[in-house]
Specification:
By secondary structure, this protein is an alpha+beta fold. The protein has 4 helices and 5 strands; from the N terminus they run αβαββαββα. The strands form 2 sheets. A 3-stranded mixed beta sheet has the order 1-2-3. A two-stranded antiparallel ribbon has the order 4-5. Helix 2 links the parallel strand 1 and strand 2. The protein starts with 8 loop residues before the first helix and ends with a helix. The structure holds zinc ion.
Length: 151
C-alpha cells in the first residue's frame, strides 16, 4: 500500500544486489520505494570505491536519509572523501520524493496534519495529496472505531 514501507519485490531486488552491505534486519532498513534508486546508486558507488563498508542502518528520519555504517576508510583524506560522497546522497534525499522518486520534493511537517513527527516526510506535490488522503482516511477509521467502542 502507498505511504507504508514495502518489503516486496523492489526491496528484494536491492537485497539480491547489495545483500552483504544492507542491514541484516528489516527494521534497519526503513526507507520508502522512492528512495530506492538513490540508495541503489549510493551502494553501487560503495561497492566500487569502498568495498569494506557495511550498513547497520539505512533509514528515513524526519525526511532525511539516515545512515549508520562501519568499515569506512581510516586514512584522513580517504575518510573525508568518503564522508563527502555519503553527504552528497543525504543532500539528494532532501529533495527526492519518498514515494515516487521525483527530485522536486519538499519537506512535509506531519504535525501540520495533526500527526506525530514520525510521519514527517519528503514528498513531491502530487504525493503530498496522496499523503493527505492517507492521513484523513486513517483518522476517520480511528474515529469510527472509537464511536463503535463507545456506543
Ligand atoms: Zn512523489
Amino acid at each position: 500500500m502507498k505511504m507504508l514501507f514495502d518489503y516486496g519485490t523492489p526491496y528484494n531486488a536491492l537485497r539480491i544486489k547489495h545483500g552483504s552491505r544492507l542491514p541484516e534486519v528489516s527494521w534497519g532498513f526503513t526507507i520508502r520505494v522512492g528512495w530506492y534508486p538513490l540508495v541503489n546508486e549510493m551502494l553501487d558507488r560503495i561497492a566500487k570505491d569502498y568495498p569494506s563498508v557495511r550498513f547497520q542502518r539505512i533509514g528515513a528520519l524526519s525526511g532525511w536519509l539516515r545512515l549508520e555504517h562501519s568499515g569506512a576508510p581510516l586514512d584522513a583524506n580517504a575518510h573525508m572523501r568518503f564522508r563527502r560522497m555519503i553527504q552528497g546522497f543525504v543532500t539528494q534525499s532532501l529533495v527526492t520524493c519518498e514515494e515516487c522518486g521525483s527530485t522536486h520534493a519538499d519537506y512535509v511537517d506531519a504535525t501540520a496534519y495533526g500527526c506525530g513527527t514520525a510521519m514527517n516526510r519528503t514528498l513531491c506535490a502530487d504525493c503530498v495529496r496522496v499523503f493527505e488522503k492517507f492521513v484523513y482516511a486513517d483518522r476517520e477509521r480511528r474515529r469510527q472505531e472509537f464511536v463503535h467502542d463507545h456506543s
